Amino acid sequence: MTKQYRWAILGCGKIARKFAEDLKLLPNAVLYAAASRNLKRAQQFANEIGFEKAYGSYTELVEDPKVDIVYIATPHSHHHEHALLCLTHKKATLCEKAFAINAREAREMIACAKENNTFLMEAFWTRFQPAFLKATEILESEKLGKLKMVRSDFAFNAEKDASQRLYNIDLGGGSLLDIGIYPIFASLMALGKPTEIKTHTQFGFTNCEESIIMSFKYANNAMASLVSSFASHSSIQTEYWCEQGYLRLNKRWFANAQISIWEKGMELEEVVPVEPIEGKGYQYEAAHVMQCLDAGKIESDMMSFQITLDQLEILDRVRADAGIVFPKHDFKSPNENELLAKRAE
Ligand SMILES: NC(=O)c1ccc[n+]([C@@H]2O[C@H](COP(=O)([O-])OP(=O)(O)OC[C@H]3O[C@@H](n4cnc5c(N)ncnc54)[C@H](OP(=O)(O)O)[C@@H]3O)[C@@H](O)[C@H]2O)c1
Asked: Which Pfam families match (predicted)?
């Protein structure tokens, strides 16, 4: 018989609601508990979506021995603190992206998972999307020849509201950690870690980074051109340019995208069939967590600790070039003044 897992939600915000709705698609997922900093909010969330229990603090949630898996859906600034809270209570933990504010925090979270022999994974849902997996398979087959360039964007015109996390520097605000992380992920999975990084950055009304253009160069001479922004809308596509053709993950490439390919000699592009998804697509990462737990793992081989660390290290290097600092999280280092000065220019 398939083992059932009791899921708990930590932080009842926007993404928590979408994720929890998709959990209902999984027969081995039990919607068990939801926790908020405010009991009424937790009760409302639990009642509306169908969780058995509601807690008015995150600590009460992790102290419940019946909770098997916690999904952390708080702002990036709090992932480190909340992951340590879950892991030290031996709760399997699925933590939203950006996994942490910097690589140092990510390393501490991973060390904590290992010390407590407890499962931990970044909730990078794109890694599990049928379209992304299909695109990866086509690129790896080299049917289109060697990959030379990744071009990826993710932008939308965000509400200019300083009270929301997107423009709040103390909550890890700015487009980079929120949506720029997706183009970085597309290039990381296809080309690995870059040898050179260059950026252009625009800061917004709260002094948060608002738009960023990133150019990466790799040891094999491949390159990537990546963009994220809260200032305008974009086509939200990822293209892989290869020696014999190209592949494009179309609109909303990070989730339920359509794939187009063009090969030398073809008159027009072709659409590659991809299985349609149910719900929003968050169930794939949740199902994978339960498969890992069935197998007694504390680390996913698909979304490994190394992928998460590589991604955070690239983000740190991008921030160093762009002069993006999160004062409450980044170490005071000799070059911090330099970064701040660069930003003031
Ligand atoms: N994978 C995806 O597709 C996707 C999409 C959107 C967002 N995300 C990620 O999910 C995380 C949450 O994003 P969201 O859009 O759901 O944010 P949100 O709507 O602002 O919700 C975040 C929740 O975190 C809790 N929280 C705890 N400490 C907080 C603090 N100091 N300030 C504000 N909220 C705090 C709050 O829940 P309580 O008040 O209930 O405690 C709040 O509702 C982010 O890291 C984001 O990158 C992922």
From this structure: GFO_IDH_MocA, GFO_IDH_MocA_C3
